[in-house]
Design a protein that fits this description.
Number of strands: 2
CATH class: Mainly Alpha
Strand content: under 5%
Helix content: 55-70%
Shape: globular
CATH architecture: Orthogonal Bundle
């Protein structure tokens, strides 16, 4: 995929900065943090991943300003927050997964209570990172507000709540709610934090939010399709509980078309980095055909 090469600079920065969190003066090794806690934190954060959300954050900043450096702390914040959601989502009381990316999940490797605390630590660390964004006070407040909204009861927690509490038979409205708030909200948040760090206009923010919602929904539908043949995931909330594979793919394509339309609208909004917009287009289009 060409967009992978074109975003290598973003992903490389994110990987390097995540590793720096565990250096001698890093946020996750500072005085007072038990060494035995730093180990599972490192395991949770540095065992791979697409780094989609931090890349989106950096690209949104670049679209608006031509550069992504201002959004580096925000990009780390969204990745750390996302990692916390994965650690908790894997818990026995949630999805009860023993493997993630082919490796033992945090609770499988370190223990149930330990994984809860790892997730709690990452949740708090995400806000500490967001507050390091170099921008004026108004923009910084907006960035933290976006992170809090996406992480809270109207965001990931609300989506997880409905996922845990809903009983079959499920309907499309329930599946959409879970997908929007467990997945799409963090995608929107990543884009908005990057755009705000670059001082996007309100009109640009609105477009990024709409783009992120549709991109996130398409991403999750394709995840459902990829997981559809996994016997271990047959009980999980999925669009395949309410429609067949062909209908689900059509819905993902519709969301992708909506996302691309948003980027077309963004291109007509004054001085922006058109190369960065093109990378976002390629990323959105690539979600439909991805195999992992």
């Amino acid at each position: 995929m060409d967009f992978l090469k074109k975003t290598e600079d973003c992903r490389s920065v994110v990987e390097d900065e995540l590793k720096k969190l565990f250096t001698a003066d890093g946020l996750l090794t500072e005085e007072g943090i038990p060494g035995s806690l730093a180990e599972p934190l490192r395991y949770a954060l540095l065992t791979g991943g697409k780094r989609l959300r931090p890349v989106l954050c950096l690209l949104a900043c670049r679209v608006v300003s031509g550069d992504f450096k201002k959004a580096i702390p925000a990009s780390l914040a969204i990745e750390v927050l996302h990692t916390y959601t994965l650690v908790h989502d894997d818990l026995p009381c949630m999805d009860d997964d023993l493997l993630r990316r082919g490796k033992p999940t945090v609770h499988a490797k370190y223990g149930y209570a330990e994984a809860v605390l790892v997730g709690d630590a990452l949740h708090a660390a995400a806000f500490a990172l967001a507050l390091k964004t170099q921008c004026d006070a108004e923009a910084l407040q907006k960035i933290v507000d976006e992170l809090a909204r996406a992480a809270g009861p109207a965001g990931v927690v609300g989506g997880q709540w409905v996922d845990v509490c809903s009983k079959p038979p499920h309907n499309l409205a329930t599946v959409n709610y879970v997908h929007e708030h467990k997945t799409s909200d963090l995608v929107q948040c990543a884009l908005l934090m990057g755009a705000i760090a670059a001082r996007a206009t309100e009109a640009q923010e609105k477009i990024f939010r709409k783009f992120g919602k549709n991109l996130g929904m398409a991403f999750q539908i394709i995840d459902d399709l990829l997981d559809g043949d996994d016997p271990a995931k047959t009980e999980e909330m999925s669009v395949l509980l309410v429609m067949d594979r062909e209908e689900a793919l059509h819905l993902a394509e519709k969301h992708t078309a909506n996302a691309l339309n948003c980027l077309e609208e963004l291109e007509g909004m004054g001085r922006i980095d058109l190369e960065a917009v093109q990378i976002l287009k390629e990323l959105a289009q690539a979600q439909i055909s991805r195999k992992m």
